Amino acid sequence: MAAVEASPEQRLRGILVLAGRTLAVAGAYLLAGRLGLVRELVVEGAVFTPIWPPTGVAVAALLYFGLSAWPGIALGVLGVMLSITTDLQPAAIGTVVGSTAAPVCAYLMLRAVGFRPSLSRLRDGLALVFLGALAAMLISATAGAGLLVLTDKIAPHSFWPVWLGWWVGDAMGVLIVTPALILLSRIRLPLRLSRWPEALALGVTAAVVVPVACYGTLSLLYMVYPLLIWAALRFQLAGSIMCALASSVVATVAATDGAGSFSNLSHVEVMVKLQAFNGSMALTALLLSAVITEQQNTRRSVERACQELVEVLEHLTAGDAPQGRGPADDSGPDPFD
After folding, report:
1. How many angstroms separate the CA atoms of 295 and 303, rounded?
2. How far apart are CA 140 and CA 146, in angstroms?
3. From CA 80, how far away is CA 30, in angstroms rounded?
4. Which of 186, 169, 185 is nearest to 55 (CA)?
5. Which end of the chain is more exposed for a tag (fewer CB within 10 A), N or C?
6. 144 contact partners, CB below 8 Å, separation of at least 6
7. What whole-number distance in Å separates Cα of residue 273 and Cα of residue 216?
8. Per-residue pLDDT reduced to its tens digit, 261-298
9. pLDDT for 195
10. Distance of CA 117 to the CA centre of its chain
11. 46: which DSSP letter?
C-alpha cells in the first residue's frame, strides 16, 4: 500500500511545530544556563558551576520529544555562550558539539536499555545515574576541558581538576534536574492532597534542618539523609527528588559563599566536598525511591492477582454447586456424592 503524501498544509504545520519546539527547548536551556551561572566556583583558573541545570533540561527534552530536540539544545548552548561573551573563538564550535553530543548520547543509551521516565524500577534509576549522568557527561567534560587546554585558557596540569569539576557539574544537572522535570510533566490537575499535613510537616522540617546542616559550623550535612529517607518512604520520587533539589541549592549557595560547612577550605576542597554531598544525596534519592516504588508496584500486582484468583475460585465453586436443592433441603447427604 502506497504511503499517503502529506498535504502542503500538513508539511507547513509540521515545520512550524518543529520550529516552535526548537525555540522552546533553546529558551529553556538558556534560562537554565542563566540560573546555573548565578553561583560559580573557580578551580585552577577555570570558572564552572557546581550544578549545571541545562544538561538536565537537555536530557529531559530528549526523553520527551526524542532526537528532534537536539537542534534546540545546540541553539541553547550557543545562546549561553553568547550571554557570557560575544567574542566567540573557533573552538567554541567544539564546545557546542560536545555539550550537545553528551545529552544525545545519554538519551540513546537510556533508550537502548529500555529506560522508563517514570523511574518506577530500580533499573531505571541505575540507568539514569550510570548511563545518563556519569557515562554520557564524560563527553562534554572531556571536550570542554580539552578545548581550554588547546586554546591556552588553562595550563595542561590543570586539565584534570577542571575536567572533574565540569564532569560532576554536568552529571549533577542530570541527576537532580531531569527527574524534577519528569515529575512536572506528569502532574495532573486537580492535585490529590490526601497527605498534605505530612507533606507540610516534611517541608517545614526540611526548611529548618537543611540550612542548619549547610550553614552550621559543625559540618552537619549528614542530617539531610533522614529527610531523604522520610520523603522517599512516604512520597517516593516526588518527595525525595524535591528534597534533594532544595538541599542541593542551599548547599551550593553555602559552598560558593564559603560559609558554614564549607568555610576555611580551598577552592578544590570546596568543590570535592560539595560534589560528594550532592552526588551521594542524588543517588540516595533516586535509587531509594525507585526501590520503594518497585516494591509497591510488585505488592499491588500480587494483590490484584490474588483478588482475581479468589474471584475465579468463587465462580468455579458457584458453577459446581448441586442443582435443584433449595436452602430448606434437609434430606441429608447424598450417598452418591
Report:
1. 12
2. 10
3. 6
4. 169
5. N
6. 95, 98, 99, 166
7. 15
8. 888 888 778 888 888 898 899 889 988 998 898 888 88
9. 78
10. 9
11. E
Cβ pair 151, 133 in contact under 8 A: no
Model pLDDT for residues 22-76, shown as the tens digit of each residue: 999 999 999 999 998 888 777 766 777 888 999 999 999 999 999 999 999 999 9
User: How far is C-alpha 12 from the geometric centre of its chain's CA atoms?
Assistant: 34
The answer to whether the beta carbons of residues 61 and 72 sit under 8 Å apart is: yes
Task: Quote the cell numbers at residue 50.
Answer: 557546581
Alpha-helical segments (H) within the chain: 8-36, 53-65, 70-84, 92-112, 122-127, 137-150, 159-172, 178-185, 196-215, 224-257, 267-320
* Residue 273: Cβ within 10 Å count: 17
DSSP symbol at 130? I
CB-based burial label for 68 (10 Å; 0-12, 13-18, 19+): middle
Any residues with CB less than 8 A from the CB of 273 and at least 6 apart, and which? 255, 261, 262, 265
Question: How far is Cα 320 from Cα 310, in angstroms, rounded to an integer?
Answer: 15
Spans of all domains in the chain: 16-187, 190-317
pLDDT confidence band for 335 (50 / 70 / 90): very low
Residue 250 near residue 53 (C-beta atoms within 8 A): no
pLDDT at 112: 96
Distance from C-alpha of 211 to C-alpha of 230, rounded to nearest angstrom:
18
3-state secondary structure labels for all residues of 34-52: HHHCCCCEEECCEEECCCC
Query: What's the whole-number mean pLDDT along residues 234-253?
Result: 90
Question: Considering the domain 16-187 in this protein, what is its CATH number?
Answer: 1.10.1760
Kindly give, in sequence order, each residue whose CB lies less than 8 Å from that of residue 153, ignoring residues fewer than 6 positions away: 45, 46
Query: Looking at residues 315-335, what average pLDDT do you find?
Result: 55
Task: Supply the pLDDT for residue 193.
Answer: 67
Which DSSP letter does residue 322 get? Answer: P
The reply to whether omega before 190 is within 30° of 0 (cis) is: yes
**What pLDDT does 227 receive?**
93
Predicted pLDDT at 190? 62
